[in-house]
Design a protein that fits this description.
By secondary structure, the chain is an alpha+beta fold. The protein has two domains: 120 residues, no CATH class; 106 residues, Alpha Horseshoe (Serine Threonine Protein Phosphatase 5, Tetratricopeptide repeat), CATH 1.25.40. Helices cover 44% and strands 20% of the residues. The protein contains eight helices and eight strands. The chain has an eight-stranded antiparallel beta sheet, with no helix packed on it. Strand 1 and strand 2 form a beta hairpin. Helix 3 runs antiparallel to helix 4 and helix 7 runs antiparallel to helix 8.
């Protein structure tokens, strides 16, 4: 009986380890409302290759890549004198939780305002970052050729189906692209409705926007505010800015 129980227990332990490891499915995962991407690809010997790129405040970034074995990746560099940078990957129902095993040991891979620890969501079909980029490129090609109805059909699903996974800046530009396309097909009400989320920003003066964000973020916010003001005016809802010009 003892001889039989040992291999059974060992086999069960090996199966549990394999099952947990197998849950790390290859694919593209989205970080914190589009603030980054985790890509996982099959590696050799049951391992996985990974690449992480995230964006934080003022466009500071984290970039790291390596090999995951048994749910962990040991990185070549560490910001800690004595502790290594080890990144852990835990498969969850709707994505993967990523963390640094030793606090701040992995900060060498990030700008001051950026981080990569957190949850990476497995996007629904057609919402992988690469597919969203492809849809936006197809939209631009159709729009540039004045095929506005087709352009609208190409881009609208990006907002409708993938909106919760878009970075704020991407959301702003997708909405402005959709708004002006609604205008081109004669639907100014839809144009205005599409831009509602960005009306508060558009109402702020350029000076207030510059004062309210770090320099690189302020530059992008200014571009979005100006585009939103312009498109709202086209669609019959001009805005007066508040505060200093």
């Amino acid at each position: 009986m003892l001889r039989r129980s040992v291999p059974r227990l060992l086999g069960a332990a090996l199966f549990a380890t394999f099952s947990a490891h197998a849950q790390l499915k290859p694919g593209e995962y989205v970080f914190e409302r589009g603030r980054g991407v985790l890509k996982i690809a099959p590696g050799s010997g049951g391992a996985h290759k990974f690449h992480i790129n995230t964006v934080g405040g003022n466009f500071h970034i984290c970039t790291l890549e390596g090999v995951i074995r048994n749910g962990e990746a040991r990185m070549a560099e560490s910001a800690h004198d004595k502790l290594p940078c080890i990144v852990t990957f835990s498969a969850k129902k709707n994505g993967i939780a990523v963390a640094s095993k030793h606090e701040r040991a992995c900060s060498t891979y990030c700008g001051v305002r950026a981080h990569f620890d957190g949850f990476y969501t497995l996007p629904p079909p057609n919402c992988e970052p690469s597919r969203v980029r492809h849809a936006r490129n197809q939209f631009k090609a159709a729009y540039d050729q004045k095929r506005y109805t087709e352009a609208l059909a190409l881009l609208k699903p990006v907002l409708d189906q993938c909106g919760s996974l878009l970075h704020d800046y991407d959301d702003g530009w997708v909405r402005n692209d959709l708004a002006i396309t609604h205008h081109r097909v004669g639907n100014n009400a839809a144009c205005r409705d599409t831009l509602l989320r960005w009306v508060d920003l558009a109402r702020q003066s350029d000076a207030d926007i510059k004062d309210g964000f770090p320099p690189s973020d302020a530059e992008e916010m200014l571009r979005l505010a100006r585009a939103t003001r312009f498109n709202l005016k086209l669609c019959g809802a001009p805005l007066a800015t508040s505060g200093k010009p």
